[in-house]
Amino acid sequence: MPARSLYIHVPFCERKCNYCAFVSSVPESGERALYLEALSAELSMRAKKHTAPLETCYIGGGTPTMLTPSQWRTLAALLEKNFAFAAGAEVTVEANPNSMTSEHLEVWKEWRVTRVSIGVQSFNDAELSLMGRVHCADEARRAVSRALSFGFDVNADLIFGLPGQTFRSWGLSLREAAHSGLAHISLYQLTPEEGTPWESLGPEELGDGYAPYRWAQWYLPKKGYTQYEIANFARPGHESRHNINYWQNGEYIGAGPAAAGYISGRRYKNIGSLARYAECIKSGALPEAESETLAPEKRAREAAVLALRMSSGICAENFIKEQGLDNYRAVSAAVEKFPHELYEKDACGVRLTKKGMRVANMIWSDII
Ligand code: SF4
């Protein structure tokens, strides 16, 4: 079945945050125009092979709001030229509070954007400044309410486990998020990533992760947000369809520097450097840095880990149909080695309990 999801990576940020390992940089003069020109060529190459209408499209980064509203009109026109969109398609845009303007919101509303995902990260100014974020808590508040006033489904990303972050300050950010009218809340635990200013933070310098996460699992459902995935909570009917496609091991097209895609059982990752990405496209080649067609057993294990991220877990019937009975048995056996309180297994399939989600990394390492 042809891919019905598209991810676009916008590789620009106003400044690098201290914890961030995503491929993005501060744009130099002319780089945004170069990006749009190269992306246009990549989209037309990829669209030729994929004609099914898109059910979901996700424009992330980086910081997509580093493109001006007029550049956004160009991007929207490129997407309309190359792809058909299914009726009711979900289209998400990531935004940063300080660079998202009302004009951006107008362009998105006129086009077909349905969701706006805002990088709030915290409602505490000291934490935002420690992370090297370019916005303050008030800007985040204003961005959320402005996006809501345009009628979008709004998500906020929040980070826990920050150096010096207290349980109280985490609780306050979470409470504010839950009372802001958001449709969706995504939570990330800080991990010191290689190549970032925070790469050498030791465990003793990081904030606790277990208690804040456990608190969120208890608190957010009380406020009407269901945990449907390890890091994601949504009001019923407002789950991210784009991300659900990833977790259900669905195929998707990725475009833009460093974007990843998964087509016909082949995973690929584009070249990260904008200059080399553009050069490669100019030569008429797809700008891929690496690609791999997964062997059946590896594909089954990856599919199992992705499915277990969701509270619905692995559906036995679908998994056996797609990955085979032997692989289902192997994955179930790997999960069943863990204490009972971490998972549930029945005729429908196998899934992690809330407690299991808190120690999921340990379970993944046994499956992969
Ligand atoms: S704004 Fe987002 S993508 Fe950009 S540096 Fe910060 S965390 Fe990374």
Q: What features would you highlight for this structure?
A:
single chain; 368 residues; alpha/beta; TIM Barrel; Arc Repressor Mutant, subunit A; 2 domains; nine-stranded mixed sheet; three-stranded antiparallel sheet; 14 helices; 15 strands; binds iron/sulfur cluster
What does the model show?
This protein is of the alpha/beta class and 368 residues long. The protein folds into 2 domains: 5-247, TIM Barrel; 296-367, Arc Repressor Mutant, subunit A. Helix content is 41%, strand content 22%. It contains 14 helices and 15 strands. The protein has helices at 31-49, 69-82, 102-110, 125-131, 137-149, 167-178, 210-222, 241-247, 274-282, 296-309, 316-323, 325-336, 354-358, 360-367; strands spanning 5-10, 54-61, 85-95, 115-121, 153-160, 184-189, 226-229, 232-234, 253-255, 260-263, 266-270, 288-293, 314-315, 343-346, 349-352. The strands form 3 sheets. It has a 9-stranded mixed sheet, with helices on both faces. The chain has a 3-stranded antiparallel sheet with strand order 10-11-12, with no helix packed on it. Helix 2 (69-82) packs parallel to helix 3 and helix 6 (167-178) runs parallel beside helix 7. The two termini are 26 Å apart. The relative contact order is 0.12. The mean pLDDT is 96. The structure holds iron/sulfur cluster (SF4). The site of iron/sulfur cluster has 11 residues, from loops. Iron/sulfur cluster is lined by residues 13, 16-17, 20, 22, 24, 61-63, 96, 119.
